[in-house]
Amino acid sequence: MPRWTIWILFVLFSATVQILAHYYVWRRLVRDTGMEHPWRRRFTIAIVILALSIPSTLWASRLLSADIGRIMGWPVLLWLGFAALLLIGFLLIDGARIVLWSVRRGLARTKKGVPASFNPDRRQFLARVAGGTVVTAATGATAVGMHEVLKEHEIKEVPVTLSRLPPALDGFTIAQITDVHVGYTVTRSFVQSVVDRVNGLSPDLIAITGDLVDGDVDSLRDAVQPLAELSARHGVYFVTGNHEYYAGVEPWLDELERLGIEILRNQRVEIGRGRDGFDLAGVYDYQSDRFGHGADLNRALGDRDPDREVVLLAHQPRHVYEAARYGVGLQLSGHTHGGQIWPWHYVVKAQQRGLLAGLSRHGETQLYISRGTGYWGPPIRVGAPAEITRVVLRSGSAA
Q1: Long-range own/partner contacts, residues 118-127 (CB < 8 A, 24 or more apart)
Q2: What is the DSSP letter of 118?
Q3: Using an 8 Å Cβ cutoff, are 47 and 30 in contact?
Q4: What is the DSSP letter of 214?
Q5: Among 5, 229, 247, 295, which is most exposed with the fewest C-beta within 10 angstroms?
Q6: Looking at beta carbons, which pairs linking 292-297 to residues 24 or more positions away fall under 8 Å?
Q7: What is the C-alpha to C-alpha distance for residues 310 and 243, in angstroms, rounded to an integer?
Q8: What architecture (CATH level 2) is domain 155-395?
Q9: What is the pLDDT of residues 185-219, one digit of tens each?
Q10: Which one, of 359, 347, 353, 343, lies nearest residue 391 by Cα?
Q11: Diameter of the chain by CA atoms?
Q12: Distance CA 386, CA 375 (A)
């Protein structure tokens, strides 16, 4: 199927979902609560405008000026996040109502007759209670979620013992940043703060595991410029995520190389010297074959010395099932954001074949999934705080 056809279908699907979601929120907040005029009209107009503001801002920033996205990003994307939380809240309540209704119906069938339906006044009262509860909960979750993305990053220290790591490299540190999503609300100041925090760790190596940007090079060149200041004894390495392909992958790879970042294109490099070293490998994003790249673990790892330890950078965690067949000691990934906003955790986990966040073992291969350094879309994190990861490699021989 041609790429433009896929894009059109995606736009139509997204628009349909957005319209249905806003209609559902309007119905539960305005219609079912019996809101009276003129408030009914005002809230209806407001929800329509807010619904239209999301695609309008995205398209205007792409077709007219990126400055539109930066100006409108915060209010529009905050509404997107708030509306998503409203939707989740109402779905949970309505799901509970359906279960209770089914139970009442089942009990009624064991007796004579059918349970009486709610009278209109009672139904409206319950709708208002539900609406007030959901709005209050969504407001609180939005405030907490904003605080999570604005506060100083957590430094997540992850010790990993590798059986083939030379004793001379015991204590070797890798600073991992991933899923920064520089764009509408993730600006140069955010990038600078990340760079300062990473350099403050004095890591031996820095790994950027994809989804760095959400926009083209011309729009975001200034915002990513602080990445040139990243410093580590053994270098700074990058592998692509899916969002690099949406933003124009080749210009971005050229730009990152200009900033002094080494791109791993289905390849590996030697870290350290001879016996006192290990292999660092990196592959293109799991779904990059749609854009002319394609992840190729065999090219990156097929002819390596099996007695040397290897650390793999791969944006999507589900690469680990293939990586385990190549004897990878450790895979570092991102992509999931740890779910970012509950309960999307469950959707992301299903999409990544049961993988979400943290350290896990798959045969002889260990996998660490970062919850991400930035955020995508709404500047909100609920139940999935952002992190900068400090991986400390420990030698099994030394132990």
Answers
A1: 123/32, 124/32, 124/33, 124/34, 127/28, 127/32, 127/33, 127/34
A2: P
A3: yes
A4: S
A5: 5
A6: 293/240, 293/245, 293/249, 293/265, 295/266, 295/319, 296/266, 297/266, 297/322, 297/323, 297/326
A7: 26
A8: 4-Layer Sandwich (3.60)
A9: 999 999 999 999 999 999 999 999 999 999 999 99
A10: 359
A11: 84
A12: 8
Q: pTM here?
A: 0.90
Contacts of 99 (CB under 8 A, 6+ apart): none
Are 45 and 9 within 8 A, CB to CB? no
Tell me the domain boundaries of the chain: 3-148, 155-395
336: its two tokens: 């999931």
Question: What is the pairing mode between strands 154-162 and 267-273?
Answer: unpaired
CB burial readout 332-347, b (16+ within 10 A) else e: bbbbbbbbbbbebbee
Residue 113, CB-side half-sphere exposure with 13 Å CA sphere: 3
Query: What pLDDT was estimated at residue 112?
Result: 55
Structure tokens at 38: 């003129």
Q: Which two tokens stand for residue 301?
A: 């790892």
| Residues whose CB falls within 8 Å of the CB of residue 224, separated by 6 or more in sequence, listed in order | 182, 188, 191, 212, 213, 255, 256, 259
Which H/E stretch holds residue 395? strand 387-395
Q: Is 92 helix (H, G, I), strand (E, B) or coil?
A: helix
Least confident of 97-106, 250-259, 356-365: 97-106
Q: Provide the pairing of β-strand 172-177 with 387-395.
A: antiparallel
Number of other residues whose CB lies within 10 A of the CB of residue 147: 12
Helices 249-258 and 217-224, packing angle to 10 deg: 30
Give the residue among 280, 279, 297 at the shortest CA–CA distance from 288: 297
User: What are the structure tokens assigned to 341, written together?
Assistant: 């906003």
